[in-house]
Design a protein that fits this description.
The structure is a homotetramer.
Chain A (H helix, E strand, L loop, with lengths): L1 E7 L4 H11 L7 E7 L4 E7 L2 H4 L2 H5 L5 E7 L14 E5 L2 E11 L2 H10 L10 H10 L5 H10 L3 E9 L2 E6 L8 E4 L8 E3 L3 H5 L3 E5 L5 E5 L2 E5 L9 E2 L1 H6 L5 E2 L2 E2 H15 L6 E4 L5 H11 L7 E3 L18 H5 E3 L1 H4 L3 E6 L6 H12 L4 E6 L27 H8 L3 E4 L2 H9 L11 E2 L1 H4 L26
Parallel strand pairs in A: 14-23, 17-20, 20-21, 21-22
Antiparallel strand pairs in A: 1-4, 1-10, 2-3, 2-4, 5-6, 6-7, 7-8, 8-12, 9-10, 9-11, 12-13, 15-16, 18-19
Helix pairs in contact in A: 4-5, 5-6, 9-10, 9-15
Chain lengths: ~475, ~475, ~475, ~475
């Protein structure tokens, strides 16, 4: 998971990118970066941490120019260093290029080995660097042809925003796995903005124009916007988990309000898995709309019975003698008076390892709940994602080897209900405004139906990171 | 507004204080500090920013000992420097002392001038330093007598947590304006914890024991706990705004769940100010429980129609050409599909200058709402607070010179309703578990009825800061 | 050892102070600080390290005004923190005051205890803070009277440069132990500069005017310069070790060129302690002029047979397995071809613990010298200094318990000769331009004849640091 | 100018490299870096500044292993960034490689363009990176063959120290332009050390073994040391300026003590350019041995009449109103009593732009000298160096367009004498221990006789930096 942003044709391009990245911050908190062009050369600033910490006024002052791209990168357990921060920029014989990538390439390692064999030197363990090297060795002349040439050799998920000295280029993989949208900044009528989610446009009073289509390449330069479709056509397979968890609730994807889709997931969940409860309580923040939908459909009261602290950093210090972990407790705390003596229906979006859910159930019960019914607004997460989401391996996914009943026992809930695959797809496609078809979604993490071949070197990680054994340098 | 925490008798006292401060972070984000004692000397670490940024493992490692106090300080426009961070510590002839203060002294400046005239040298512009100097010049022998001696000369609001080499002392002013509670850490049966709010105990699996009473001084040392009441008795005047806005919803104050009190405020508001609306939308996060109460009582749907970003820092960078301010937009964004075409009832806790409300109303309307009814879960804020809350002067408080009707026009709402003073007090005192009487509250910011004399040098500021003219050095 | 500088009446006062401190850097490398006044308030910047590291352009930009004082502080083993950096500034009832101090007070601890007993709170372990507190409690009105009042209660060595909002004040103790000189910046005819050594004037093209006399207080403000002698008169006792080691060779003190004085010490040493040598080699840099004098008088060749590296910091990292210490080797390296097969006369200024001399002798011998004759251009250092020089205690001074013969054996030299006390005084007073008398010098570190009473609390340390037991806070 | 160091077969290799770099610090103060190998991977730390500032204990702790190479880089006006710091390390298909380079390649730009045309991506503007890319694309198998393959395609000056996971490799260009020596660390009998100058061995108690020969490649790994000569043989052309200025006086190069060579230069200078003077004064530190030789041969007294401050950093802050520059004054100050009324012979090693010499002559005259005779211990510097010394272009070299007489007038000296080319070569080759012939030296900066072809892309700069137009990225 990452967020990308691009702007062309504004005198303070880097500052717009900075604001846009704020709105995409939920897609990645590990590092942030912006590359800007003044028409002659690219200027780069990348740093670890949130956008607010990574950029100060003096950093933006060093990013002059009319075009800029930005990237926020998701936190990963290992491989966390500014070396892997994006956008990645390089100079090659044809000029300079900077790339911001959301997604994950499934054959990056094979291609990398072939490139190294001919003498290419890699600087990072990022799969994105493979794209840059393929661009550099392409025998095409125009940069857009070099990029198409490079991408023809790669498979997987990519929503790319690319900057050269004189142009902004956006490309989405043929299946459209990760989102990518086009916007414009009034009074201009011409699109000059690209972002992972339209929320990034709201912030700067810009307008959503349209989705970048699966397989489309958009080039924006002084001549305006050109669009092409350099790849063989392919069925659309957009990530359904964006609706369940990733995207911001105030975003609109595929014609659908994410907030409304989540409420629908909650309603459907109430139908599939009703519960004898007194109160519906979300795991905040992502579980809130589903809980509102669940409460509405069940005609039960909705309460914010778990309070989230937004001040907790990614690491904190515990007493050495402690035998329990503070993690969940630091982030969530129960409102005792709301829970005590009640039968509580807790709504969450997914269960990964099960350890967090277990702590939440215990917390609710310790606050005095007489029963805890856990309801999940998506199917069991059984399969790792190879398209840019940092899920654990199958080994660690509790649902890949345990039934819902076993999981319910493990997390100590009185009952556990997962939304069905059908129910999930129905909820999303049934949301007002949906454009497309039921088959347009990748739901490999629930179904194991991967829309691309994976190959021996397929790596399950955040884009930008190869497998652990490649992270050595 | 600030938060204080104290612990005595635990081998990792500073780490417990660090965790406790996390739970009090909502009471102050400007700076954080901890002082610990190992029985021989005090060790201090203070830094700007959130607890998570101010403290690393190496900082805690330098704070050994069995006793510790901590402080989080509220953000203020000026006077923001680590010099004003707390706890404030000093060495005087009788030993070392560190003080963490929540509240504000109303005669600090007069006393300070008298102290300077006799040769005392002040290091900061903090009113808390006056306490320390009075302790140092006291002719009493025992530190608790020195402290009582000092506080006899001071008026205003103070919930103090004080550390010496060998003891932890907590004092609350005679009117109990700011909260202060006592806790214990099982398996110990003896109280060894003090905090601004009981939420700080939840985090470390500690237990709430009781409130520190107005006018009470509690001393905890190797001999256990001693309590005394060194001041003349006084009517209780606890800050009612803690229930409306300050305290965490998962806290319990005066026997009352803050969450439940806020829901009651919302219910009462619905009765006093019903509206012809389609949907009830809170200004998150503080408006959420009141909105749930309002929706319940009005039988209208509750929706999270405004999304709050929790990644925005206190300062951010705007384009130079921008004529509007991004502030509110960075923090809040509308969910268009929830608001479009609806008559929206927006619930907030208070209006200060009116500028933020104006932006929120505009945002909701721009998202397509056909009407915006603003409802406030407290009375108009007409008077500045002199007891530790950083409200603006009367000049800047929009309600001090404008009627609700004028304010409604200014913020461009279709209607505006403030909860009445009576309604607010009824809602709080009517909440399940309330112990006490209707007259126990300070509501000066709404009524102008200040429970203490203010004197010529009274300063309206966060504790720890004298008036601007004293901040020169 | 420290260096002080003051300037009044120049629009870039802080920048002049910054340049002046560069020229005094040899007097202290641990920390540097400047306080400037713009007529209304004092602005301070202090930091650890060399002047070049402690001050950047942005730091100087924050020090506006027409008056400034600066301080460089000597490195000490413990107590090294920015808290002890000078100038020390404070606000008291009468206004603001900043003090830069070279010297050491011998009754600071007693006075401090009395001040604490009446309620004064100390911020540092510095003896300089005692001065500030005495100024604050003085019942005098004018600041110069307050300062005189304070200094009447103190004994020891002090060359003080003091800044208030509107004046620059310089005071030298009645015996004139540490140097202090007055200068002017052309085209001004009026003195507006004060410094520890006249070298600080050379750098900024300023002119030496005269010494500040022992016991003199000079006040420079908008009315010009006023001089007074507020103390009872006392015999002059200037530190003779300034000529031997401390002062820069390009300085002039008491009418005498320090370089010429050192050459005279070398000549006299050659007369008292001739040696059968082939070559005269100094321990650089301080031993160079004495070695030139020794070589001239002996008619032997002078060679730079030991090379000093100027890049070595105060701490460095050694291999863990190492049994020897790299210290001296990192700083000094022999020129083998100059030493091999020769009888080498090594000239140094003093021997403190003996360990460094031992390493140097070994180094010269390992380079192939057939004999090493060590000659010291001052008498044996037997007594600690209580007037501002950070010598070890008697216990650690090798000469306090061992004869020259024993020391020679310990350092493994073939012979060792110390200049006699008489010889040293004759050499200095015999230098061209000397004004004064043979009895004008403090030579307590050689003779044990301390010119002041020392009292029970006398502390042997750098000014600014009390005894270890007071460094607790 | 740079310094390189390598060590193989010691458990604390990085710490030895750190100590060795201290001894080479005079060869470069801009940045410092070390790469270490633990047999499996390379670990790197590079930072701006002196070795003492660039490395702390925690940095060395992250450089485990038995082999290490280090590099110190010279200060240059532009292009100063950690990106250009060395050693440069990279991973290619064959493994990892790190390179530390002293020298400058004269055809780097042409080769770089050819490499970019085939798709290589460069990370820095360093010519050293060209070597790495050539190694990566070589079709040879063994790393030593890849290196030889790469170097066959390059011309210019290089003393290289290269580290792989399992070996240390040292190579010197066929003409041996820059020095490179081999050492061993007792008790080991086998050479495991390489350095630019033998001084680096002294520091760690290691022994000089022999020079690395021009055109020699030495490989040290677990099998011991292997030597080969992969290049066509070529006449030796070692840089004569190492003797005049660069090398430390305590180093020995080509069998000759640098200190003794400099004294010989001074003696010869006295013969060629005697002067009617009273005193011989060096410009410290580099002019000291030549001045001692000059004084000896002239039978005139030697005096340290100019004092150098070693505390001045590379940048400092001047008053804005200043019309003169403080630069020289901050570093050098005259000893007035030594110079006043005298006819002073000032000895320096070279004149580059003439501006510094002009300031020095003025300073000596202002101190009261009645005449200033400037004597230079090398011939006029008329030509830029293309082999690793950062001299200005011909345009800026005052001697390339002005006669000695004109320069004397410009610098305001009473007379100016440069040592002749013959005299310089005679002095160096006549020093005790010299091995080789008069024709073994490169003296292109004096004579314009460049020993290699220069080509259109030849760049005059420090190694590691291409021409300004390549520094864009």
């Amino acid at each position: 998971m990452c967020g990308v942003f691009g702007v062309y044709g504004h005198p303070e391009a880097a500052t717009l990118a900075y604001l846009g990245l704020h709105a995409l911050q939920h897609r990645g908190q590990e590092s942030a970066g912006i590359v800007a062009t003044d028409g002659k050369r690219l200027h780069t600033h990348r740093a670890m941490g949130l956008v607010r910490d990574a950029f100060g006024p003096e950093d933006l002052a060093k990013l002059p120019g009319f075009g800029a791209i930005g990237h926020v990168r998701y936190s990963t357990a290992g491989g966390s260093s500014v070396k892997n921060a994006q956008p990645l920029s390089a100079k090659y014989a044809g000029g300079s290029i900077a790339v911001a990538h959301n997604g994950n390439l499934t054959n990056a390692e094979e291609v990398r080995e072939r490139l190294e064999a001919r003498g290419s030197i890699f600087q990072s363990s990022s799969d994105t660097e493979v794209i840059v090297h393929l661009v550099a060795i392409s025998i095409q002349r125009a940069v857009e042809d070099r990029i198409a040439d490079a991408l023809h050799q790669l498979t997987g998920a990519y929503s790319l925003v690319i900057l050269t000295e004189t142009s902004l280029i956006a490309v989405r993989d043929p299946m459209g796995i990760r989102p990518l949208v086009l916007g414009r900044l009034p009074p201009s009528e011409s699109p000059g903005l690209v972002a992972s989610e339209p929320t990034a446009f709201d912030l700067i009073d810009a307008k959503w124009v349209r989705e970048i289509k699966p397989g489309e390449m958009v080039i924006i330069d002084e001549k305006g916007l050109r669009s092409s479709f350099p790849f063989a056509s392919s069925p659309r397979k957009s990530c359904v988990f964006e609706y369940v968890y990733f995207a911001r609730p105030d975003s609109k994807l595929g014609g659908v309000s994410v907030y409304e889709a989540r409420k629908n997931l909650g309603r459907r969940l109430a139908e599939e898995w009703p519960a004898q409860g007194d109160v519906v309580v979300p795991v905040p923040d992502s579980g809130v709309p589903a809980a509102i939908g669940y409460a509405e459909r069940s005609a039960l009261p909705f309460e914010m019975g778990l309070i989230r602290s937004h001040y907790v950093g990614r690491t904190f210090i515990e007493p050495e003698q402690s035998i329990r972990h503070f993690g969940v407790r630091l982030k969530l705390n129960p409102v005792t008076d709301v829970l005590r003596g009640k039968s509580v229906i807790v709504i969450d979006d997914s269960i990964v390892r099960g350890t967090t859910s277990r702590k939440i159930v215990k917390m609710v019960r310790d606050a005095g709940a007489k029963a805890v019914h856990l309801r999940i607004s998506s199917p069991p997460t059984e399969w790792p994602c190879y398209y840019g989401i940092d899920t654990p391996t199958r080994m660690e996914l509790v649902a890949s080897s345990h039934s819902a009943e076993e999981i319910s026992k493990y997390v100590t809930s009185d009952s556990l209900g997962y939304l069905s695959l059908d129910g999930m797809l129905n909820a999303v496609t049934g949301t007002r405004g949906f454009e497309g078809e039921r088959g347009d979604f990748c739901h490999a993490c629930f179904s194991g139906e991967y829309p691309t071949s994976l190959g021996p070197g397929a790596v399950n990680g955040t884009e930008g990171l190869m497998s652990p054994r490649r992270q050595g340098l």
